[in-house]
Amino acid sequence: MNVNSVGGSIRGANNPGQAAEDNLGRALFDQTGLGNHLQSFMSIRSVSIIHQLARDIKFEARDRADVLAAVRQNGLLLQHASDALRGDRDVVMAALCQNINAKRWAALPAGDLQGLIRSIEAVKQDGCALQYESRALVLEVVRQDGDALRYASEELLGDREVVLTAVRQNGGALRYASAELKGDREVVLEAVRQNGLALGYASDNLKGDRDVVLEAVRQDWCAVQYASRELCGDRGVVLEAVRQYGCALLYASAELKGDRDVVLAAVRQDERALYYASAELKRDPEVVQAARGRQFVPPPRI
Known about the structure:
The structure is a single chain. By secondary structure, the chain is mainly α. Among the domains are: 1-125, no CATH class; 229-302, no CATH class. Helix content is 51%, strand content 0%. The chain has 18 helices and no strands. It has helices at 16-30, 37-43, 47-56, 64-73, 83-86, 89-98, 110-125, 135-144, 160-169, 179-182, 185-194, 204-207, 210-219, 235-244, 254-257, 260-269, 279-282, 285-290. Helix 13 (210-219) packs parallel to helix 14. It is elongated and about 80 Å long. The relative contact order is 0.05.
């Protein structure tokens, strides 16, 4: 489980870049209405300036959704939440998962708070402990670190909400999902939008879904290698890939390796893509000319 260290965000007071950032933060804060103060806090990386601003206006956040979003970015912001929200188990859990030191501002009953702290610390020390924890804690952990899904119980690997939450944070977490959810179109779309290479973990059926594959390739051209054979012959899919990286022509069907427009798009992006073109297009004067931007060298191994 990855827990971001708030201390890592604090730079030296003598750092000119930090001073400029703090000034920008103050300007942003001054231009923002009270209802948007939490968004202002979350946009400022300096922890010291966040707390100073909150103290200056005697800020007390009462909106639950805003507070949850804020403490997931910086658990110590729990201190600026209302008394009621500092006693909200979900809010406290989110803050503690992000920074265990937020416990000093939690207003949960002592026994409940200590149990929560023990669970979170156990998971931080050994991710495998997550498989024994409550669904609520697993949801919060994967919301902050999608890859932690690997430690969830088999039951929760088939829980749609848990898996959706994980892949939205880290698309690669799709690898741990149940077979059923690897074939769930919405789950896979969310995964490939975050990480195109998650297509490699999708069901064969979805590797042949044009919309899913296009989303994946738009996010990362490398995803084309996981597309079905049929979609490796889809002009739109292959064009999307070669426009990002010409040598993705390697994965195109034989027909598209002989498609003049596709090959031109590829060699204009990377002259080495000519290596993968059909024999006929390797002799085509316009294609050869387009590839002559630099001296031809053997293409990289993909």
